[in-house]
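SEVERITY: medium
COMPONENT: batch folding queue
REPORTER: lab tech (J.R.)

DESCRIPTION
The queue accepted two submissions in a row. Attaching both inputs and their returned structure tokens so the on-call engineer can compare them side by side.

ATTACHMENT 1
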Amino acid sequence: MPSLFPIARSAWRLKDRDRFAAARALLWLLAARVAVRLLSYAAIERLSARVTGRGAPAALSVDECALALRRALRVLPGSGCLPQAIAADCLLRREGHDPRIVFGVTLDGEGRLDAHAWVQHQGRTVIGGETAETYRPLTPPRAS
């Protein structure tokens, strides 16, 4: 775990709006990490679908949400791609945006299946895009 003193010092230097955005992102990230450990993805998906916007125009832009999540990851490093994607999805929904979690797969160097999750908004990758291009996106299941 990183030393909290430099993180706290840099957080203190942020504008109030940015500090509160990072705190909200941190709470979503904590909730996502707990949810991934305790719940099935179907249950997580049902819960996250219930997250709605505040009713006003988006308080944070998509870029501000992504920056807030990157700041939260400095406090909670080691969060896998799935908790990051869930947290980003919930934060973006709460801010009035319409994100989409994308799952992709690839074969690693030894022929084993490797998976990754990332978040897109209006066709643009918001979170998890650093390696997303190396994964083949899975198509969502068709409604029956």
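ATTACHMENT 2
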Amino acid sequence: MLLAPLIHLLEPETAHKLGLLCLRSGVLPQARAVRHASLQTRVLGLEFANPVGLAAGFDKNAVAINGLFAQGFGFVEAGTVTPLPQPGNPKPRIFRLKEDEAVINRLGFNNEGLAVFTRNFASRNPALGIAGANIGKNKDSADAVADYVLGLRAVYPQADYITVNISSPNTQGLRALQQQDALRDLLSVLMSEHAECSAAHGRHVPLLLKVAPDLEPGEREAIAQAVVDFRLDGLIVSNTTISRPASLKSVHKGEQGGLSGKPLMELSTQVLKHFYQLTKGQLPLIGVGGIASGADAYAKIRAGATLVQLYSALVYQGFGLVARINQELDAQLKRDGFTHISQAIGKDA
């Protein structure tokens, strides 16, 4: 936190690159491990030391996974990675909305491609925690489905789980893949490819879908049905929003792109709760969007999340937030008479 004022003097992307360099080099102080039996959980066939994860978008090229685990995360999701390297959208493309504790980005899946990503991912220490890979399509790809197949094949041998990102607002046409027919076509191919990868590698790698918070109720119903029909392992709810709450104060509130951070909390939690109801609590859900405290994380869990992820709050509170959330989660479980986090899942849904 002492470094935050200095970091905020830097342009956002410069500050982000500096953060990744520090994490990769191991120069940041390591977080004191938070270990509560109440927070250790088995989800997706995997053992999580705690339910607080890092959302995709921070470590796009999987360069700092080991360093991120040293900050106390229960799991880390790297990416989004596309088959070919791409620079993303023109700069400036990240905006801090300080008064709102929010961020707007229109990065556009800037990353170094699958070859670099998989090489970096392979260098992580698997003993440190659960690491997922988030896959997407190239901006100019003529065949989106083929891009996701390439991504699935490439990351399958190394990833603990794989997320199919069809919900970023910053790649033209991407969110159209959430529409019923397009989604079913994509999942049909991916699940067939997933079965082949599972047989070839002798292990089942959970496959999840990441959706937007801006879906209409009918669209959510169609997605939930497709996910159940194709037997995906879980959903991540949600990505950034293209909506702009009237309460925003920052001068940057009108910038194009996806809004994340505190203003997304209420919307993303409502959508999460709806997906929990639609899937009848039978599908693991990862709650993302606006988490900045243990109370926020607990609200996601009570709305139906089995695990949670954060990112934007780190911009304002630093990595010490991860340990605080875990401590606060344990305290809130005890306050409500729960001995384990699984007992609180969906209590408000």
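NOTES FROM REPORTER
The chain has a mean pLDDT of 95.
No errors were logged for either attachment.
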